[in-house]
């Protein structure tokens, strides 16, 4: 809070003289930039900007928004919506014709992370503003692999270390079991505009257009969970994208005017992007020379020592929508809603068919769906003359398919307004 007050004080010193000179000071006009901020805050409050479409800034108002996020994950949804380990265990039946298993490896992957997002926006006119969003993230990801030997013990593979040595003989490098961020890591920056093209006392609609840039950090492929080589995940998508959002708010007449309902739908399309491929070892033995022809084992353990350094992914279409209802008491508002997100299966462009088969076997590049219950508590300090809004939120997972199940998903956001 001290930093906010200090920032406003500095702004007052910079702009006070210019304001007085430009507009001329009379008894009913603000005598300092701080007074001007408070006056504009009162003006903004009188504009009755309600609902999700009220994110548009009035003309001449600059905004800084900061959002803190926390998420934890140790499970994901399978194709039927069942909750399963974050990275599916590898288990093979006995290739020698027995009834038992050859081996089982449980990765026990888990982790948590924090998001730090800055959004800078400016009101060009009352219904139109432009913005840029700068996301950052920290991650703390771990694997605690547990190995169960089956008939592979007949080959001298009884412990986890012996299993790693066995994998190296077959050309697969050892896994990294831990990744911890050493500082803030950049996500995909995006920028665009919002246009609140219709607003009345009871109905409001707005459209947002945006462009995404591939500035987000991609996981080190030799430590990436996508290839079961470690717990690291991608922060960015690795490609440019365009997107759009349309929002609609409804508020009934008095005496129910404190109620509101909202619907919002977003679409994005991510173009083809290049990815660095992991480095595999030259196999010293062929898996088929040990266990014979086994399609399942061959899919996980092909010879990939000569694959190119890069391959290509087209993430494609993503669609999100949410609906919520809320109560607005001027200073405090509360809402609850349902959020759905879908992403198509990415298109993989790789010259190695065996590499593509391995990616399919790990089921990390798939069509995805998530469903969440979302709650928010909004403290509108504009209603008491302070140019700020605080938003506290939570997402509770209720379902999905082929997607990570994020839990303990909390957000805290503050938005400050600086009129010019």
CATH superfamily annotation: monomeric porin ompg
Assign the CATH class: Mainly Beta
Annotation field: number of helices: 6
Beta-strand content: over 45%
Largest sheet, spatial ordering of strands: 1-5-6-10-11-12-13-16-17-19-20-21
Rounded to the nearest angstrom, the radius of gyration is 27 Å
Structural class: alpha+beta
Helix content: 10-25%
Sequence of secondary-structure elements: HHEEEEEEEHEEEEEEEHHEEEEHEEE
CATH topology name, in short, is Porin
Number of strands: 21
| Major beta-sheet overview | 12 strands, antiparallel, barrel
CATH architecture: Beta Barrel
Query: What are the low-pLDDT stretches, counting only 5+ consecutive residues below 50?
Result: 1-27
Report the average pLDDT across residues.
86
List the domain count as a whole number. Answer: 1
Task: Give the end-to-end Cα distance, rounded to a whole number of Å.
Answer: 22 Å
Sum up the overall morphology in one term: elongated
Walkthrough of the structure:
Helix content is 16%, strand content 46%. It is an alpha+beta fold. The protein has one domain (32-419): monomeric porin ompg (Porin), CATH 2.40.160.40. A twelve-stranded antiparallel β-barrel has the order 1-5-6-10-11-12-13-16-17-19-20-21. A three-stranded antiparallel β-sheet has the order 3-4-7, with no helix packed on it. A three-stranded antiparallel β-sheet has the order 14-15-18, with no helix packed on it. The radius of gyration is 27 Å and the shape is elongated. The chain starts with a helix and ends with a strand.
């Amino acid at each position: 809070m001290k930093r906010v007050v200090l920032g406003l004080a500095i702004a007052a010193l910079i702009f006070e003289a210019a304001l007085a000179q430009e507009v001329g000071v009379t008894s009913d006009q603000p005598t300092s930039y701080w007074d001007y901020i408070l006056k504009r805050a009162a003006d903004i409050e009188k504009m009755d900007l309600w609902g999700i479409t009220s994110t548009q800034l009035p003309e001449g108002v600059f905004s800084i928004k900061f959002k803190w996020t926390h998420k934890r994950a140790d499970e994901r949804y399978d194709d039927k919506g069942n909750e399963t380990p974050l990275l599916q265990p590898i288990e093979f039946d006995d290739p020698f014709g027995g009834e038992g298993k050859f081996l089982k490896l449980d990765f026990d992957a888990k982790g948590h992370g924090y998001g730090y997002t800055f959004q800078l926006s400016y009101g060009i006119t009352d219904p139109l503003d432009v913005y840029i969003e700068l996301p950052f993230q920290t991650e703390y990801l771990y694997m605690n692999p547990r190995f169960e030997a089956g008939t592979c013990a007949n080959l001298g593979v009884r412990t986890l270390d012996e299993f790693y040595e066995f994998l190296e003989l077959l050309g697969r490098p050892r896994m990294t079991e831990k990744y911890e961020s050493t500082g803030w890591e950049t996500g995909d920056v995006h920028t665009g505009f919002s246009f609140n093209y219709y607003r009345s006392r009871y109905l409001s609609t707005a459209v947002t257009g945006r462009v995404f840039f591939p500035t987000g950090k991609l996981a080190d492929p030799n430590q990436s969970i996508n290839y079961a080589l470690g717990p690291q995940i991608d922060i960015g998508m690795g490609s440019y994208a365009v997107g759009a959002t349309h929002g609609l708010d409804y508020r009934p007449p008095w005496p129910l005017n404190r109620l509101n309902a909202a619907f919002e739908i977003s679409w994005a399309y991510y173009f083809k992007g290049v990815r660095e491929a992991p480095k595999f070892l030259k196999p010293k033995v062929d898996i088929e020379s040990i266990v014979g022809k086994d399609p399942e084992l061959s899919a996980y353990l092909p010879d990939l020592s000569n694959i190119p350094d890069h391959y290509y992914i087209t993430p494609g279409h993503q669609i999100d929508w949410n609906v919520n209802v809320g109560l607005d008491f001027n200073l405090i508002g509360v809402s609850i809603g349902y959020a759905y997100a879908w992403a198509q299966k990415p298109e993989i462009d790789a010259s190695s068919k065996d590499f593509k088969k391995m990616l399919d076997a790990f089921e990390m590049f798939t069509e995805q769906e998530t469903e969440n219950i979302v709650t928010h508590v909004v403290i509108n300090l504009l209603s008491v003359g302070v140019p700020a809004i605080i938003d506290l939120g939570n997402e509770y997972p209720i379902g999905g398919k082929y997607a990570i199940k994020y839990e303990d998903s909390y957000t805290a956001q503050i938005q400050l307004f600086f009129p010019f």
